[in-house]
Amino acid sequence: MTAPAPASYRDEPWFTLWSSLCHQGDVYSASLAAVPDLVALARSRGGLAGLECLYLAASIELERHAPHGPDLPSELRLAYQRAVVDGLVLAREYEQQLTGDPQTRAKIAAAAFSGQADLARKLYDENE
Q1: What is the mean pLDDT of residues 86-104?
Q2: Could you say which DSSP state residue 66 is in?
Q3: Domain of residue 57, residue span
Q4: Is 60 exceeded by the pLDDT of residue 1?
Q5: What is the C-alpha separation between 54 and 50, in angstroms, rounded?
Q6: Cβ distance 33 to 21 under 8 Å?
Q7: What is the dihedral of CA 83, 29, 57, 42, to 10 degrees?
Q8: Which residue in 12, 41, 107, 127 could disulfide with 53, CB within 3.0 to 4.6 Å?
Q9: Which pLDDT band, with edges at 50, 70 and 90, does 64 fall under?
Q10: Mean per-residue pLDDT for 104-125?
Q11: Residue 91 lies in a domain
């Protein structure tokens, strides 16, 4: 992926990616399959574009645990669990590097990846 960080939520390819993988809180098995790649992209890209990939992966992880979230298929389990661990480490790195809204997004990602859904949702609501 070579797209720059989005300036607006409607910027492509981000708008289509978010709409396909985590549209209004709905996630699917394909969303879960994308998480390891999103975390890998976040690690390789860095900066705000990397944060966008990480934030999308964290949003999928958060919604996976919601009552309507899909079960994690067994064939995805190992790669997905590794991505969650790596995502948490990366989110904490972003927290240290960033300020303002990007830092808040990193905090939300860290909360989601660490299983603190209530905290992630609280931070999200405060940031809106």
Answers
A1: 96
A2: S
A3: 26-127
A4: no
A5: 6
A6: no
A7: 60
A8: 41
A9: very high
A10: 95
A11: yes
SS3 68: coil
52 SS3 class: helix
What percent of the chain is predicted at pLDDT more than 90? 72
71: which 2 tokens?
Answer: 């079960």
Distances, alpha carbon 124 to alpha carbons 25, 99, 113, 127, in Å? 13, 16, 14, 5
Model pTM greater than 0.90? yes
Report if residue 84 sits inside a domain.
yes
Q: Distance between CA 35 and CA 69 in Å, rounded?
A: 14
- The DSSP element (H or E) to which 37 belongs, if any, is helix 29-45
Read off φ and ψ for residue 59, nearest 5 degrees.
Answer: -65, -40
Asked whether residue 5 is domain-assigned, the answer is no
Q: What is the tally of structural domains in the chain?
A: 1
Cβ–Cβ under 8 Å, residues 103 and 95: yes
Residue 18, in any domain of the structure: no
Residue type at 93 in one-letter notation: E
